[in-house]
Design goal:
9 strands, globular, alpha/beta, 238 residues, nine-stranded mixed sheet, binds uridine-5'-diphosphate, single chain
Amino acid sequence: DTGRTEKRRVLLKLSGEVFGGGKVGVDPSTVRGIAEQIADARGAVEIAIVVGGGNFFRGAELSENGMDRRRADYMGMLGTVMNCLALQDFLEQAGVSTRVQSAIHMEQVAEPYIPLRAIRHMQKGRVVIFGAGTGLPYFSTDTVAAQRALEIGADEVLMAKSGVDGVYTADPKKDPAAEKYGHLTYDEALLNNIRVMDQTAMTMCKDNGLSMLVFGMEGQGNVTRALLGERIGTTVTV
Ligand code: UDP
């Protein structure tokens, strides 16, 4: 039972680089800006958020530099929780009621991940922020976004990107002839090796009929517009 009301329910994926403003750590003014945009959409839509952690650690990178992959992945997951707390703080300051749910137990700062409770929070108008990924090494927070969206019955995944405003035929920074897709299917993306999100995540969306909007963070009010269902960026469907 995903407890659906008539309201649209979305899962917003914010990668770690969005939090750092391109640097390591958290850039408070950037996070405040995102929080205020989320606050502008609240009430009109039920919102859950999956937060990445690449601004702190990526397990694969640490393991290339000599660390054990599994332990490095746990460091990556713990990094996502710091982003959750930063986002929670600025959301609360913007007047939004929030709960953080973590896939790794840490009761002082976050509830455990309980899907039915997450749904209840959203129905009460709270924004739920999911941290610590799946709690399992070898996964990415893109996969978590797909999994959580499916488990809480979200209508759509909203993938916020920084530095690009949708999915292109080629890398627009390298190829001036690159064109933006308005719409794309998962098969097209998988066949042409277009990295909208990682393959595990895309396959999960495809197999379960979950659609996705890939949009750019940079435009004025873009996060709010995406949350409210505006078709900015590229839509990816089965
Ligand atoms: N991670 C993991 N399991 C998960 C989700 C994340 O081990 O279910 C680790 C992994 O090391 C990853 C890091 O956490 O590199 C940060 O997540 P991700 O790279 O997905 O963040 P983003 O790229 O969105 O900032």
